[in-house]
Design a protein that fits this description.
heterodimer; A: 288 residues; alpha/beta; Rossmann fold; ten-stranded mixed β-sheet; B: 269 residues; 9 helices; 10 strands; 31% helix; globular
Chain lengths: 288, 269
């Protein structure tokens, strides 16, 4: 009898945890590869709902991001009725799971085009789940943040807005691509990040490939948008000081928001503020 | 009086520059006399100041200002206090031609090609815009016309930015006081782009990769000055931003050796 109660309680807990929502693990064939991704589908998701892609970091996994309790995207998705997609990167030549963003060991050796993959996946999901074609958004951390910059270069029209966490613009990206269209963009970056360094790494001293100083990378997007004005304000935080540099006045109306986390490290800065909600609020500004 | 002071400041700018860069090459004063000519070039009022014995290949610095009246330019020498006149004379001996033109903010700066054509034998041409955004507009519209560009207490003009874009790398230096009330650091609605975004647009087109910041020793009781140098630009281009902690909306020459710094930037281009 005791076992039955325990089992019943466990089932009840499980149903509460997933009440009204669906988690799905799906695959799609793209560029000859079977790619996997996880979906988080809130209950009663309306037709034409927005879609948010969340990209994991280098060596990471989509599943770990889906189950990361400190990331509040799932709660926000329930509130805002947004579908979440956590795609899985393939293994690169190292071999580690990673998005192809032109790290030195990826150039000319990693054939997969992850920008095409994400765009193809977006179209597939929009069609399959009757989602909005306009309201598709992208965020990612570290290597996923680098993908945000690369997407801003290559596929700006595919996303309503893009938010990078601790991401970088590699010099190789700037060599190969130009910003061609305005894009609403957000960056959150710690000045104490020792992985993706605030001051950049112009000589590839740290091995990730040469990359721009973070303020220059962000201002390059602002320049592409032809943002005209700026303001800086302090953000209420639980730990590190955070300043929001807001670049606005673009003829396209697309802004660039740059959160400077003083002494912040290589993370989502969730110890300092609700970065996931901040990202979702930024995306909401550009929902059409 | 203010206008006279403006033109004298320009002369002083190059006086300091010459003194710093090539003292040993400057001939005795009695070897030359100053030639000041007021004339119209490409439908723009201009004052050309040069030494009588200057080489035909002397570099030309074009300064675009929007508040110099014809009356001032017609007779700048007699109205000039002795000390400043000497400074002007000193700066011009044998080395540079200064062409100060009057031009308001405009989205079309093709007239600068005509200004340049008035000095067909000059070895180099440089452009300074003072309290306007002409240097930025020129860097967008005619990026190959000048060897380097400078903007002092101005910024990208909003209307110009709507119709022009940066298309190729340029060497650019900007001097600006953080509390400039006319061209505000953060931009002025429908007038001027923020200073960081103005210089940031040049940094972006140059594909600069990183930057360094150097603090100047301030003059007594004057605001701090920092120089941010943006490095790694394409084609060897250089970009510098001098940030002055004051409310100066002019040359910021009270705070630091602005003319010398601009010339030092120019002469390497």
């Amino acid at each position: 009898m005791k076992k039955i109660i325990v089992l019943f309680a466990a089932l009840l807990l499980c149903s509460v945890a997933t009440a009204g929502t669906t988690k799905k693990n799906e695959t799609i064939t793209d560029q000859g590869l079977t790619r996997t991704y996880h979906l988080y589908i809130p209950d009663n998701l309306p037709s034409g709902a927005p879609l948010v892609f969340i990209l994991h970091g280098y060596g990471g996994s989509a599943e770990s991001y889906l189950n990361n309790a400190s990331l509040t995207f799932k709660k926000l998705a329930d509130e805002e009725k947004v579908m979440l997609c956590y795609p899985q990167a393939t293994k690169d030549p190292k071999p580690n799971t990673g998005w192809n963003v032109y790290y030195p060991w990826q150039i000319d050796k990693m054939k997969v085009d992850d920008c095409e993959f994400i765009c193809n996946l977006a179209k597939h999901l929009q069609s399959t789940y009757n989602l909005s074609e306009k309201n598709t958004f992208l965020t990612g951390m570290s290597n996923g943040g680098e993908m945000c910059y690369l997407m801003a270069y290559r596929k700006p029209e595919a996303f309503g807005a893009i938010a990078s966490m601790a991401g970088l613009t590699l010099v190789e990206m700037a060599k190969r691509h130009d910003y061609t269209k305005p894009v609403a963009f957000m960056e959150v970056h710690g000045t104490g990040d020792t992985t993706s360094r605030w001051e950049g790494d112009p000589t590839n001293q740290y091995g990730w490939g040469a990359y721009l100083a973070v303020p220059l990378a962000v201002e390059a997007v602002a320049a592409a948008n032809k943002c005209m004005y700026q303001e800086t304000k302090e953000i209420a935080t639980k730990a590190n000081r955070i300043q929001l540099h807001r670049y606005y006045g673009s003829p396209s109306g697309k802004e660039v928001h740059f959160y400077e986390v003083t002494n912040g490290g290589h993370n989502w800065a969730t110890d300092s503020f609700d970065s996931c909600r901040t990202i979702m609020e930024f995306f909401k500004k550009y929902m059409r | 009086m203010k206008k006279i002071f403006c033109i004298l400041s320009l002369c002083l700018m190059f006086a300091v520059a010459c003194e710093q860069t090539a003292n040993t090459e400057i001939p005795e004063k009695n070897d030359s006399s100053l030639v000041v000519v007021s004339q119209t070039i490409a439908d723009h009022n201009a004052v050309i100041i040069k030494p009588s014995n200057s080489k035909i290949t002397a570099p030309v610095v074009v300064v675009v200002a929007d508040d110099i009246t014809l009356a001032t330019r017609m007779s700048p020498v007699p109205e000039t206090p002795e000390v400043n006149f000497k400074a002007a004379e000193h700066c011009l001996i044998g080395r540079y031609t200064l062409c100060v033109i009057e031009a308001g903010e405009t989205e079309d700066v093709s007239y600068l090609n005509d200004i340049k054509s008035a000095f067909p034998n000059a070895s180099k041409y440089y452009l300074v815009s003072y309290r306007n955004g002409v240097a930025y507009t020129a860097a967008m519209q005619i990026p190959a016309t000048f060897a380097a560009y400078a903007c002092v207490s101005g910024a990208i003009d909003v209307e110009s930015y709507k119709v022009n874009s940066f298309t190729q790398p340029v060497s650019f230096v900007h001097v600006h006081a953080k509390n400039n009330a006319e061209y505000k650091w953060t931009g002025v609605e429908n007038k001027s782009v923020s200073v960081p975004l103005s210089i940031g647009a040049v940094v972006a087109i140059n594909e600069c990769t990183h930057y360094t910041t150097t603090a100047f020793t301030p003059r007594e009781d004057k605001g701090r000055v920092t120089c941010t140098q943006y490095l790694g630009g394409l084609n060897g281009t250089d970009v510098k931003l001098y940030t002055v902690d004051s409310a100066n909306s002019g040359w910021c020459d009270e705070e630091f050796e602005v003319y010398n710094q601009i010339w030092n930037f120019f002469k390497t281009r």
